[in-house]
Amino acid sequence: MRVGKAGVCDFRIVRTRSLQASEQFPVNCGDTVQVWYEENCFFQGYIFTVEEDQERVVKVTAFDQIRYLMESDTYVKKNITATQVIKDNALAVGRLLGPIADTKYVIPKFSMDGQKRLDMICKALDETLMADGSMFIFYDDAGLLTLRNVTDMKVNLILGENSLVYGYSTSRDIDSNTYNRVKLVRDNKESGKREAFIEQDSDTIAMWGRLQFWQKVDEGLNEEQIKAMAHRIMQLKNRQQRSFNLDAIGYISVRAGSILQVTMPHLNLDRNFLVEECNHKFAGQTHTMKLELNAYEVEMERL
């Protein structure tokens, strides 16, 4: 999944007759798991669950390094980038870092108490997105925690009726992440009052009713910065959310956070989508994938 969850690998092993049920299965919690495909390792993780049933089938679940960022702690910093938030929290739990992009935007004050380290990272990336429109993808790349700009995640692949896809569903909604009124508030220590900055779209309010996004911003931001943030949030949120769920022949380069093209002429659809969730399945020689895709117009204009 693109945001807020570790990568997971589920697999099954059947006991052979040479390994009796009374013997302990030689797979243990904490063991390292690697998954290779065509001479490339695309998943590395650690076993967290081992189950066995009466049919002698052992079910194993492994998570990548992001699972270890689920521990809670306190983190308070001033004038820090999301890049540094990632490095600090990853190193605090002894995780291995790969390429970490420079997010550049400086967060004036960052404070989270008793929160999961992964939530801290997601919050820092969200603040960066709302401040300057830059989206970054954080993931474990086969054993190395990695951060890349979404514009670097384009996969050279077209999915459609005659290209890999064998099933799909589509939806539109204003329920999950749509807002047509943004209200940002700032506490003014000098006046002792709370100031509100509002941007809204009367046309979509008339169509959908008022859907308000509210957030308290750092008192160190000036009025121009807050208004620019409100405008950016409106650009991101003031639209119907359009998503696709696709069943397709597997393509190993696709992962959560990838950008790929979907072309379906009978739906008048020919555009890029962001992969929100990606599930690869291997059964014998068959490799398929299930994708949850969301259109993301603001970012697509940059590709």
Could you give the topology of this structure?
Layout: E1 8-14, E2 32-37, E3 40-52, E4 57-63, E5 72-80, H1 82-92, E6 97-100, E7 107-116, H2 117-132, E8 136-140, E9 145-149, E10 154-160, E11 165-173, E12 181-188, E13 193-200, H3 202-208, E14 212-216, H4 223-237, E15 241-249, E16 259-264, E17 269-283, E18 286-294, H5 297-300
Parallel strand pairs: 6-9, 10-16, 12-14
Antiparallel strand pairs: 1-4, 2-3, 3-4, 5-7, 8-9, 11-15, 12-13, 15-18, 16-17, 17-18
Helix pairs in contact: 1-2, 2-4
List keywords for this structure.
303 residues, alpha+beta, six-stranded mixed beta sheet, four-stranded antiparallel beta sheet, 18 strands, 17% helix, disordered C terminus
Q: How does this structure look, described?
A:
It is globular and about 80 Å long. With 303 residues, it is α+β, with helices and mostly antiparallel strands. It starts with 7 loop residues before the first strand and ends with a helix. Strands 10-16-17-18-15-11 form a six-stranded mixed beta sheet, with no helix packed on it. A four-stranded antiparallel beta sheet has the order 1-4-3-2, with no helix packed on it. It is built from five helices and 18 strands. The longest helix is centred in the middle third of the chain and has 16 residues. A hairpin with a 4-residue loop joins strand 16 and strand 17. Helices cover 17% and strands 47% of the residues.
